[in-house]
Write a sequence for this structure.
């Protein structure tokens, strides 16, 4: 392929990856904006999401690439998979908040963060123990349609991913910007005590943030499975690292920042994999993370700098 | 610029509990502690319906603790807080707002990255949407034309005085029966202080009871009906505004020197 | 203070401890001979390795409060250091230049059917200390970027570095043999013979290493350095204001923690005779963190116990338990139980432990601090003492310098658009007492913050006895002689009264990390002197603080906590003492007591700058009063004059009331006549 075509191909790949990372980063930043808590379990909720989706699709009779759907049945199946997964992961997130994190919400120091590390490990290992460590073949009901742009290939599934991501991100933006609960979330993130004084029930707002964030993580998991036709218990950590870097890059706590950050990281990963080497991609991503935190902690769009108060 | 007589003419003659005789808020025997720091010592206040009552005092005398106790941020160790005849000391902050108490916070504390309109919306969080909301919004806009002008500006970009207007408007959107103001004149230029106090009087005329914690005794006494003076957590002076204005002991109380008979 | 009934009836706590230690040592020494199972001895050796890792992380997380999630990186560095320098992985071409090193036994010439090559043969015993140094260097390198970050971000950056190291190890094949791992790592030699395949010699080396590191940890914990770490863990700002050099101490914690891990790396790799990148990733860092959290953050014996329990649980019990659970599963016909491998679920157990500990027992198995019951009212009560401080004669007089102790000239401080201080001038004469008063928001605390270096000034100068201190870091300002208390009391919450006061002396003592560990005569004498001085200062407050010297400060009354803060500031032998509302929250009797105590300090020659609201205190103490309002100085003079000053009254009260006061003043002067 010519270089331009390679670039185009990797941009396409990068945007698809980026869409997934954006959803993950968004979910993470929603919680951080209100609680200033780094939720390590977020990324294994993503992983659980991909497993739930896999089970839903298998329950609908779709194994591997045995069934190919189009039109309404396809949309219906995907809708079922997404909704079911998002509901399950959303509730999982709420459960974690309500029964575990709420107890340590006001404890000074790293107690809450360490708790999320513990929860993350529990999620990971429950899946490992019940489903095994091997990679799973994720059901693929999508028709293998693709379009050629020069030598680069644009697959139907990529367009579908972009559409779904845009719908979800748009939905979230609308929710946060225009609904009563969404505004309550923004108010709580900016000044929790003043929000309380307006009659906002901060506990409910926090649960909603966890629900939405975890639901988005679940959606990210479904996209992961559909994109790679694969999932395993280990996918959380890698995707998590990238999504976390995306959130920090965009500006932690900042919603549009998370979206932009996700896209940038996705493209960097794709380009990095092509032009440098996949082994070093991790190092590049980590380096970006460290550099942003050290030199520009507020990120690209952020206002809140994570420095000593 | 003299502030002395600006508001005197508008001060109503009636004093004492409630223009219609009913008590809106009663503090009885309240003791509040921060750890073992005794912040409010056996404090009694009454606020009658339709009044403007002011709480005065120097630094660290317990004014802001009083505010926090009313709003539910702090719970009293002993004593009762009764609002409209019902005890509220065990209720959550949001519940108290729903019952009809709205705050105007110290240093305003608008939501900085929400627009003026959204801030007002948040003020109406406990209220139903629809016709009522629009009515209230219109009322606020007519009280504060400047606020209407800036309704799409981010809260954090307004000047101190403009923020104070929005903060008061925000409280009004909750259709409260009692507005609690924490140091409304703090950080404002004299011009704005005068405007703000004019508006407080206007709101009160329209029927809202006001409880105002203020360090600026002069301004507070020029619009209040009654006042209490706190010194290190204890009420040391109380009376009608007219009485307080003549009382030179206020100075001593502010400077922490007023000798009280109560045991230390 | 200890209660012994009959001399022979029971042992004192200290004796019990010694006996326990003796028995433990005995057990460790004879274990391999009593229990001759090589696998079990190997597990114990592994437990030793994890114990040393936990000890190292304990210094970073437990003592200094820096949450390091990438600790395994230093483990890797030590491991690969030894591995590369003893295996056959890196073999440069031989040249005569290598000869001297060969003579020293560090390298040897080898020939594998080609040109002559250099085989590194670094001795295990030399590798241990040198790896510590190499790892310490990386500790500083990785720690430096995190110094200004908040706790959770510090954790993330350290996690980042922690992941980069194994990735580099995996990808720089030529040096590390990538994912396949180093092989042919040399076993240690002692007196000419190699350790061989038995686990026993490794067991003893491991135990010796644990003992050494326990010893070092305890020495550090109980020294000036340990106190400083705990101060910075509890409250960085206050620690800095009390003279603790945050940068140096944080880097020191990273370095020493890394050194422990580096040594463990050498030991571990020597035992396994291989090193692979998988041995050093996030799961390992997490495992060590779990051991520290489980055992008790900050508790030396706790983390050793935590590491031992978790490691032995994994290698001894889980395998057996797996067998029992499988048999049980077979018996009741539940497939999943019959096949589950509990050893695999160790990570799950780790996760559960983290959650359970954080929710229910954050102090760990063996808390670093024994919980003290809160003192009741009787225990806190003390008679009000009049007449100033007790035992001032024991305190050597401060020598007031000549001229002015403090000169603040034209200092301006802006926060965004708000001017907190506007070209303020304040002069504090040597040995004098100046009070600063003013309504809320007038800039009083900002003044203190800018003098002590906690806040940046946008103009002006601040001179202490003629030397410029504006722009100095807070710990340097303390060193120069400016000590302060805080408006809302910033004591180190989990430290005792005595420890808080000792921190005040941090800059006046000299013991560094090495001296702390060696604890030679000079260090012991210095600690004894510091202790005496601290008790003398505490004793100034009569019986209010002395009986509670070993009480953790959160259990103290508000007034007593204020007194401890003053004692802490005094302990640093300052030239000028900045007191921020020292009598706040005290009743009139206590207020009077403290006012007289402060006055007696002044008689010692100490210079005092005071923020106070209570005018009677100001009148008792101050020769000069400065009034601030909205960042401007609006009055200055004698207390009686300032009280009558028009502008001051306006600032506090607004204008109308002033008229009444003026009228009163007129009336008074009329009466006098």
């Amino acid at each position: 392929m010519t270089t331009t075509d390679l670039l185009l191909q990797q941009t396409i790949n990068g945007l698809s990856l980026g869409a997934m990372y954006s959803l993950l980063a968004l979910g993470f930043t929603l919680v951080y904006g209100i609680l200033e808590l780094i939720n390590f379990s977020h990324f294994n909720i993503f992983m659980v999401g991909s497993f739930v989706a896999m089970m839903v699709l298998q329950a609908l009779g779709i194994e591997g690439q045995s069934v190919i759907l189009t039109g309404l049945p396809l949309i219906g199946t995907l809708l079922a998979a997404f909704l079911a997964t998002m509901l399950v992961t959303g509730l999982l997130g709420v459960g974690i908040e309500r029964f575990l994190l709420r107890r340590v919400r006001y404890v000074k120091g790293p107690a809450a963060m360490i708790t999320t590390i513990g929860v993350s490990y529990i999620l990971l290992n429950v899946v490992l123990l019940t489903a095994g460590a091997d990679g799973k073949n994720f059901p693929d009901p999508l028709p293998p349609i693709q379009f050629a742009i020069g030598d680069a290939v644009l697959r139907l599934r990529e367009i579908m991913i972009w559409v779904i991501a845009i719908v979800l991100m748009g939905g979230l933006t609308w929710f946060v910007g225009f609904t009563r609960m969404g505004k309550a979330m923004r108010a709580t993130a900016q000044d929790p005590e003043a929000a309380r004084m307006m009659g906002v029930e901060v506990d409910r707002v926090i649960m909603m943030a966890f629900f939405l964030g975890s639901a988005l993580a679940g959606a990210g998991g479904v996209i992961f499975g559909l994109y790679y036709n694969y999932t395993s218990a280990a996918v959380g950590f890698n995707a998590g690292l990238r999504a976390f870097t995306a959130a920090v890059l965009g500006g932690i706590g900042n919603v549009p920042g998370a979206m932009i950050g996700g896209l940038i990281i996705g493209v960097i990963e794709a380009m990095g994999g092509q032009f440098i080497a996949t082994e070093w991609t991790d190092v590049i991503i980590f380096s970006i993370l460290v550099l942003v935190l050290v030199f520009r902690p507020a990120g690209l769009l952020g206002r809140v700098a994570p420095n000593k108060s | 610029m003299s502030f002395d007589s600006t508001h005197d003419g508008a001060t109503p003659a009636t004093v004492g509990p409630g223009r219609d005789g009913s008590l809106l808020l009663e503090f009885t025997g309240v003791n509040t502690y921060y750890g073992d720091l005794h912040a409010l010592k056996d404090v009694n206040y009454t606020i009658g319906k339709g009044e403007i009552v002011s709480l005065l005092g120097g630094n660290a005398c317990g004014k802001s603790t009083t505010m926090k106790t009313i709003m539910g941020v702090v719970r009293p160790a002993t004593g009762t807080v009764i609002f409209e005849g019902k005890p509220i000391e065990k209720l959550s902050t949001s519940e108290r707002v729903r019952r009809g108490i709205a705050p105007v916070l110290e240093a305003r504390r608008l939501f900085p990255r929400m627009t003026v309109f959204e801030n007002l919306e948040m003020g109406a969080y406990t209220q139903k949407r629809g016709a009522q909301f629009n009515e209230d919004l219109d009322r606020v806009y007519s009280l504060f034309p400047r606020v209407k002008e800036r309704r799409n500006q981010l809260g954090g970009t307004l000047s101190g005085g403009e923020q104070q207007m929005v903060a008061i408007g925000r409280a009004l959107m909750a259709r409260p029966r009692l507005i609690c103001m924490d140091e409304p004149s703090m950080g404002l230029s004299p011009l704005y202080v005068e405007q703000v106090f004019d508006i407080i009087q206007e709101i009160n005329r329209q029927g809202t009871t006001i409880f105002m914690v203020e360090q600026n005794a002069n301004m507070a006494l020029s619009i209040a009906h009654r006042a209490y003076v706190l010194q290190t957590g204890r009420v040391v002076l109380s009376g009608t505004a007219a009485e307080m204005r003549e009382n030179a002991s206020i100075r001593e109380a502010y400077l922490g020197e007023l000798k009280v008979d109560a045991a230390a | 203070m200890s209660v012994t009934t009959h001399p022979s009836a029971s042992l004192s706590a200290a004796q019990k401890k010694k006996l326990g230690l003796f028995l433990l040592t005995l057990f460790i020494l004879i274990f391999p001979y009593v229990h001759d199972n090589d696998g079990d001895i190997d597990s114990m050796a592994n437990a030793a390795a994890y114990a040393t890792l936990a000890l190292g992380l304990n210094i970073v997380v437990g003592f200094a409060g820096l949450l390091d999630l990438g600790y395994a990186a230093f483990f890797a560095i030590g491991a690969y250091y030894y591995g590369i320098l003893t295996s056959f992985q890196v073999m440069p071409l031989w040249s005569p230049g290598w000869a001297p090193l060969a003579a020293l036994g560090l390298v040897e010439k080898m020939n594998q059917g080609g040109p002559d090559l250099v085989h590194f043969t670094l001795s295990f015993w030399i590798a241990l200390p040198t790896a510590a140094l190499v790892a310490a260097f990386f500790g500083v390198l990785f720690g430096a970027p995190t110094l200004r970050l908040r706790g959770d971000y510090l954790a993330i950056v350290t996690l980042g570095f922690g992941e980069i190291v194994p990735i580099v190890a995996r990808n720089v094949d030529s040096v590390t043999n990538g994912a396949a791992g180093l092989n042919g790592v040399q076993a240690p030699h002692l007196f000419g013979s190699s350790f061989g395949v038995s686990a026993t010699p490794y067991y003893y080396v491991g135990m010796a290493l644990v003992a050494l590191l326990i010893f070092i940890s305890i020495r550090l914990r109980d020294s000036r350095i340990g106190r400083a770490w705990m101060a910075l863990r509890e409250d960085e700002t206050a620690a800095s204001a009390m003279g603790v050099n945050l940068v140096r101490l944080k880097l020191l914690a990273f370095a020493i923690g890394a050194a422990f891990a580096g040594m463990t790396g050498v030991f571990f790799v020597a035992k396994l005779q291989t090193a692979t990148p998988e041995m050093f990733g996030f799961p390992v860092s997490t495992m060590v963190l779990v051991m520290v959290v489980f055992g008790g953050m900050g508790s030396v014996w706790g983390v050793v116990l935590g590491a031992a329990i978790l490691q032995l649980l994994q290698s001894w019990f889980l395998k057996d338990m797996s067998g029992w659970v499988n048999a049980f599963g077979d018996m009741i016909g539940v497939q999943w139980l019959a096949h589950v491998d509990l050893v695999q679920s160790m990570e799950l157990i780790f996760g559960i432990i983290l959650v359970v500990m954080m929710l229910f027992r954050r102090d760990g198995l063996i808390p670093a601090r024994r919980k003290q019951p809160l003192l009741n009212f009787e225990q806190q009560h003390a008679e009000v003492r009049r007449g100033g401080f007790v035992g001032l004669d024991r305190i050597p007089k401060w020598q007031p310098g000549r001229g002015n102790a403090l000169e603040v000239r034209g200092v301006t401080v802006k926060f965004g658009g708000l001017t907190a201080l506007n070209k303020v001038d304040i002069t504090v004469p040597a040995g004098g007492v100046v009070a600063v008063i003013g309504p809320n928001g007038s800039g009083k605390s900002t003044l203190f913050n800018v003098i002590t270096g906690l806040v940046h000034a946008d103009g002006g100068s601040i001179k202490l006895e003629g030397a410029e201190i504006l722009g100095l870091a807070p710990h340097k300002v303390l060193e120069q002689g400016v000590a302060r208390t805080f408006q809302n009391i910033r004591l180190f919450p989990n430290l005792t009264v005595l420890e808080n006061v000792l921190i005040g002396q941090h800059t006046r003592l000299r013991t560094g990390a090495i001296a702390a560990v060696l604890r030679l005569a000079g260090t012991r004498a210095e600690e004894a002197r510091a202790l005496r001085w601290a008790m003398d200062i505490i004793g100034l407050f009569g019986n209010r603080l002395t009986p509670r010297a070993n009480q953790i400060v959160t259990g103290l009354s508000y007034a007593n906590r204020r007194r401890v803060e003053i004692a802490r500031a005094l302990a640093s032998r300052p030239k000028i003492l900045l007191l921020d509302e020292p009598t706040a929250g005290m009743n009139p009797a206590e207020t009077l007591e403290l006012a007289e105590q402060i006055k007696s300090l002044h008689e010692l020659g100490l210079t005092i700058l005071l923020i106070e609201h209570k005018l009677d205190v100001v009148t008792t103490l101050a020769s000069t009063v400065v009034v601030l309002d909205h960042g401007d100085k609006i009055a200055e003079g004698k207390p009686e004059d300032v009280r009558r000053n028009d502008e001051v009254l306006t600032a506090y009260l607004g204008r109308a009331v002033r008229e009444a006061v003026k009228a009163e003043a007129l009336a008074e002067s009329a009466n006098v006549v």
